[in-house]
Amino acid sequence: MAKKKIAVLISGGGSNLQSLIDRQQAGFFAGEISLVISNNKNAYGLIRAEQNKIPALHISKKDYPTNELYDRKLIELFAEYEIDLIVLAGYLRYVTPELIAKYPNKIINIHPSLLPAFGGQGFYGAKVHQAVYARGAKVSGATVHFVDEGQDTGPIILQQAINLDTKWQPEDIAEKVLRIEHQILPLAVKYFCEDKLTVENNRVYIDL
Ligand code: GAR
Fold it and tell me: Is 111 a residue of the active site?
């Protein structure tokens, strides 16, 4: 089976990107991270990519001021790099219907809660864990899902939960959830690369 070419989109620290780089190097999945793109020029994930000799680009909103222009630039780059799979790894930007239509069930997002809880408008990054803490939730976790036109509504590929200790602050929850993210995101990528995922009626079947 040919190796899938993967683009990873980031906005920040890129610990999920790092988990993918590490797993690729360990031969965990049959894919190759061919391109890393950040909308934020100071994202540490760009440095992680460069350290691993992966082409890393900052695409600025200043140069592509509307979502449509921005995503058309991405579509152009994905074609140039012959990308098979797009992974949103802490990418905090809206994705246009045009981009989603070009890559149906080929865009994967990691979200730091058990969707549909604590998802949608305004729930991203640390805000998710603050909301989980404020609500006094007893469990949280992470979700990997395909991206559709809604916000955090696409078909769920994998989820993993953890029990929350009432003593944990939002930062502690974030740290524990990140550890889960670093396991389930590479696993979803592995299944994708092995063509094991099919989507029917908004459900993802994993052919193990
Ligand atoms: C991760 O927790 C990821 O789930 C979250 O941003 C963080 C990025 O961390 N993504 C979202 O909230 C998307 N709605 P990282 O840059 O260290 O991978």
Answer: yes
